[in-house]
Amino acid sequence: MSLVHEFVQWIGSFAVQQTILSLVLVTGLMMAIEERRVSVFAFLGQYALLSLLLAGRVYQPIAVLKGAIGVPISIILYISASHVERRLREVRAVLKEEGNEESTGWGHALRERIRRSRVRAASEERDAAFPAMQVSLTGMSSSFRILVVALGAVGAYGLWQAHPITLLSPQISLACYFLLATGLLLAATSQDPLRIGIGLLTLLNGFEIAYYFLNTSLMLVGLMGAGEILIALAASNAAERWSIGVSGSERR
Question: What is the pTM of this model?
Answer without folding.
Answer: 0.77
